[in-house]
Amino acid sequence: MALTSLSRFSEITTRIFENKKLLRSVSPVTRWLHLSPEFSMKANILFIHRWRLYRHIGRATRQSVPRLKQFSTCSSLLQTPAAHVPGTLQQELDPFKLAEPDLINLYSDIKKELSTQSNHLGCISSYYFDGHGKAFRPVMVVLMARALNYHIFESSRLLETQHRMAIIAEMIHTASLVHDDVIDTSDTRRGKSSVNVLWGQKKAILAGDFILAQAARILAQLDNEDVVHLLAQVLIDLVQGEFMQMSSSDDETERFNLYLKKTFKKTASLTAYTCKAAAVLGGANDTLQEMAFQYGRNVGIAFQLIDDYLDFMASQSELGKPTAADLRLGLATAPVLYASQRFPELKPMIARRFCKLGDVEKAYEAVHKSDGLAHTKRLARNHCNEALSHISILTDSVEKRALMSVIEKVLERSK
Ligand code: FPP
Ligand code: MG
């Protein structure tokens, strides 16, 4: 074994063993080696074996995905600067297909976590875990985890803790939707009656709390204090974001900044911190943790911008909720804020939260006459390009390509 390779193994091994949480996931023999005075040599030898095994497993798993068959040519939507995407990475993978084996039991796993002695509570809190969600957040977590594991260990094997993080992400997201439908007095969610309509507001709030509490229990089982802090911040942001949305600024120039801040807290915080948590759980260094955070942050902001765009563009049947729902709720999102630059008469409407008869219709029309929608899409595209540039530091892998494809899907989506 060449000396340089050995020192590389030693460096990687030291990083692994420095991470106490990861240490728990390795075998008792390996743990013993860590405690032994002869640690460094024995660990190196053992690690070489494990590394070879992981590489082998990694290759076998990767070969099970027909690499070239699933690639489709990247559309021009992203208009990605060539510098971000080296030639070999032009082709992309279907991220949902790639993450499917990891998430095949996502909803049944969550339902198990939610099963309680009270059938009624279990039934209400499981209601949205019906397999009809996009599972967008878990897909991001799983792909980020695998792409990072491949970058660090040359094996994309998913750690169980990272898999649990994907579950937690979906549970927090769904709990927030149950509460959100109460706040927005929504009758429907994903084309079916909302929890609050079927069981009333009180039970909806309790069901949301219950999902959150069960997610907190799974989080505690990960036994990683850093990750607990990250996820606590997500919960703080979600509540603050929702609160920010309820208030509006009288200062016109402040409005857009507030909107972006709210967008991060309400939507992007969850994707940013859960991607970062996947990195922490995988033993990634600070640079890689920040990369994961920035990817999740930018994709999350773009996702919300496109949501706000679709509120004006998609049909009710596509969205599974009424169009211009944000205006009806009194919310001024990016398309209206941009449109108000061309049509200043929108400004007093924004200030009074479109509460006067005819405001919603007038604002809807003004947005379509303006370039607000094009500007919104452009801003989303900029965030996508930023996400792309952050993951460019990762070693090429199918998972990295799938992360790139996630970005494309965010921009292309129609519901
Ligand atoms: C959907 O927004 C809602 C969110 C992304 C977050 C809602 C957060 C809370 C209600 C705070 C409480 C948080 C927890 C964790 C219980 P939307 O109304 O824009 O989207 P929609 O059209 O899908 O309803
Ligand atoms: Mg809502």
TrEMBL record:
GO molecular function: all-trans-decaprenyl-diphosphate synthase activity; metal ion binding
Catalytic activities: 6 isopentenyl diphosphate + (2E,6E)-farnesyl diphosphate = all-trans-nonaprenyl diphosphate + 6 diphosphate; 7 isopentenyl diphosphate + (2E,6E)-farnesyl diphosphate = all-trans-decaprenyl diphosphate + 7 diphosphate
Keywords (A to Z) from UniProt: Isoprene biosynthesis, Lipid metabolism, Magnesium, Metal-binding, Mitochondrion, Transferase
Gene Ontology CC entries for this record: heterotetrameric polyprenyl diphosphate synthase complex
Subcellular location per the Swiss-Prot or TrEMBL entry: Mitochondrion
Gene Ontology process terms (BP): isoprenoid biosynthetic process; pheromone biosynthetic process; ubiquinone biosynthetic process
EC number of the protein: 2.5.1.91
Cofactor annotation: Mg(2+)
Claim: Hydrolase is one of the keywords in the record: no
Family of this protein: Belongs to the FPP/GGPP synthase family.
Subunit structure and binding partners: Heterotetramer composed of 2 PDSS1/DPS1 and 2 PDSS2/DLP1 subunits.
Role noted for this protein: Heterotetrameric enzyme that catalyzes the condensation of farnesyl diphosphate (FPP), which acts as a primer, and isopentenyl diphosphate (IPP) to produce prenyl diphosphates of varying chain lengths and participates in the determination of the side chain of ubiquinone. Supplies nona and decaprenyl diphosphate, the precursors for the side chain of the isoprenoid quinones ubiquinone-9 (Q9)and ubiquinone-10 (Q10) respectively. The enzyme adds isopentenyl diphosphate molecules sequentially to farnesyl diphosphate with trans stereochemistry.
Protein name: All trans-polyprenyl-diphosphate synthase PDSS1
Gene responsible for this protein: PDSS1
